Amino acid sequence: MDFATLIGLVGAILLISSAIILGASPGMFINPPSLLIVIGGTLLVVLAKFSLAQFFDAFKVAARAFKFKLPETQASIEELVEIASIARKVGVLGIEGREVSSPFLSQGIQMLVDGQDGNTIKQLLNKERLMTLEHNRSGTKVFTAMADVAPAMGMIGTLIGLVQMLSNMEDPKSIGPAMAVALLTTLYGAMIATMIATPIADKLSLRMTEEARMQSLYIDALVAIQEGTNPRIIEQMLSSYLSPKERARNGDAETAGG
Questions:
Q1: Which of the listed residues 119, 181, 222, 223 has the most CB atoms within 10 Å of its CB?
Q2: Model pTM?
Q3: Which residues of 28-48 are buried (b: 16+ CB within 10 A; e: fewer)?
């Protein structure tokens, strides 16, 4: 579970809800016509931008914003170095059936066992990586579109409310409900875009980048293993994927060990 996403979204909703409850009557912030315009309108307009499969698949992909865990980079490097050591000592058949931390890595190991050359492994896994990127990017685009459309639908609702209010100025009782629609649709649109759609789109984009980076690490390691590169050299090569802080920590650990 990604607690940053959960705490951020739930915390923002609770904060706004508390401000509403501590203020005037909370009931005045609930307006069915406004909700219909903003939520229904936003979903339908976004649906028009994508295919049915892309639209519904985006909500499945959205789960990655809340629950998605990649192996730690350092742990993955250690795992790959261990695999490289086994392959160098007893051959690639020695790593057949080995349990690993990633299905992508497992797929690459199977290619090694099957005797694929380095270029073939790199091409096939890069294609798989690009397909995963496209799948994740599609979900991100849907939520980005939702963040763009929701405020616009709120503005449309505001205009509808203003037209209703101005066309019934002779009836004072109608002014209040019309103004409620006018203002609340803008509020709903801003809340959906700012508190839900944009954070999810940004988190999915971050997930996409992290996963692509990890898959690149696996590809580099597998190609090096296929070429028979020394495990120590592989470890040094893969250390470029570590953050400066992690590299410094590893350097301190090696100094202490030496």
A1: 222
A2: 0.81
A3: ebebebbeebbeebbeebbee
